[in-house]
Amino acid sequence: MMKYAKQQLIKYRQSPLLVDQDLDLQNLIDERFSDLIINARLVHVQGTIRMLANEEIVMAVTVKADLTLPSSRSLEPVDWSTEVQIHETYVTTAEELSKFEEDEAVFVLENDSLDIDQVVLDNIIAVLPSQILTAAEEEGESLPAGKDWQGISEADFAVQQDESQEDAAKEEKTLDPRLSKLDDFFK
Q1: In what order do the strands lie in the sheet with 77-91?
Q2: Which spans does this entry mark as compositional bias, Basic and acidic residues (predicted)?
Q3: CA–CA separation, 177 vs 180, rounded Å?
């Protein structure tokens, strides 16, 4: 667990704290995001943490992570790697947030400590893909099916929608035979 108290970081005003470390985030993942990440084989953090003269803490690190995620279609394990750049500033009070632009990554320090594990995991979660498939699923393996249901692709769904709209248009054109005499009335 990589966590630094604000008091520990004071000594890094002159020169930054250099970070080059592997993290074990599995327990944290199991607590908070077990539905999104199956396993975190490697999470490596490299960069700097510095405390500025105005008590702001600036963290600039690169995170490389090799993860196992569940397939969004079948929940089968899928290996996935990412590299995330994290550049965040931490302040001690909420009032200090107003000094920064809205698009800057600035957070209030919780309990006067910087929990690197939490920061890294939150940033990894932010870049997870919304759809991840196994190699077989990407190659077009059939979609899951069950009794009275089956999954279809977006392309197949669009074709079905077009066909149903065409069928509806044909039904509108066919005149009810009981009203056929009225059709002649307007001619």
Answers
A1: 17-23, 39-51, 57-70, 77-91, 106-108
A2: 167-187
A3: 5
In 95-167 the beta strands, taken as DSSP E runs, fall at 106-108, 113-115, 145-146, 149-150
What is the three-class DSSP state of 134? Answer: coil
Largest Cα separation within the chain, whole Å, is: 96
- The answer to whether residues 60 and 48 touch, using CB atoms and an 8 Å cutoff, is yes
Numbers of helices and strands, H then E, in the chain: 6, 9
* Segments of the chain assigned E as strands: 3-5, 17-23, 39-51, 57-70, 77-91, 106-108, 113-115, 145-146, 149-150
pTM above 0.90, yes or no: no
Cβ 53 vs Cβ 83: under 8 Å: no
For residue 39, the tally of other CB atoms under 10 A from its CB is: 13
Whether 37 and 76 have beta carbons less than 8 Å apart is answered as no
Domain parsing of the chain, residue ranges: 3-138, 143-173
155-to-73, 80, 168 alpha-carbon distances in Å: 16, 26, 20
Q: How far is CA 35 from CA 29, 74, 86, 109, in A?
A: 9, 13, 24, 27
The per-residue pLDDT for range 8-67, each reduced to its tens digit, is: 888 888 899 999 999 999 999 999 999 999 999 889 999 999 988 888 899 999 999 999
